[in-house]
Design brief:
The protein is an all-alpha fold. The chain has one domain. The protein contains five helices and no strands. Helix 2 runs parallel beside helix 5. The chain starts with a helix and ends in a 6-residue tail after the last helix.
């Protein structure tokens, strides 16, 4: 997928996240889990494509971050903020599965997940990721 296609679906995820927060995070946990994870994968792919770190047909999947070991195997050897990004994405993946497939969680758990998402987003923003 090319950068413009990633930007289009990223904007959709960001809109859905914003709507879910506005409508109440307790009732939208699964949606938040899926879209925060998907949005971060798109941000990562946009970054990798912009730096020519992956080929045009390469797909970064959320389950690459099921563990730090797996993430290190699947990611390019070196890139800006690699350790910070992998650390956050591994936490996101673990919490994602609880939100998407588990029983409803307390508000604090969902808020922590959204904060992890926002931390990762700030890192990508600082790296010059353009969503528009």
């Amino acid at each position: 997928m090319n950068i413009d296609a990633h930007k289009l679906i990223l904007r959709e995820s960001l809109d859905v996240i914003k709507e879910s927060i506005r409508d109440g995070i307790i009732g939208r946990q699964r949606t938040i889990g899926f879209h925060c994870s998907a949005a971060l994968m798109d941000m990562l792919e946009i970054y990798f494509h912009s730096k020519n770190l992956i080929g045009p047909g390469t797909k970064i999947q959320h389950d690459f971050f099921s563990s730090e070991r797996k993430a290190l195997e699947k990611m390019p050897k070196d890139f800006e903020n690699k350790k910070k990004i992998i650390d956050i994405l591994v936490q996101i993946e673990k919490k994602r599965n609880v939100l998407c497939y588990g029983k409803g969680q307390e508000k604090a758990y969902v808020e922590e997940y959204i904060e992890l998402f926002n931390r990762a987003r700030r890192i990508f923003d600082s790296m010059g990721i353009d969503y528009e």
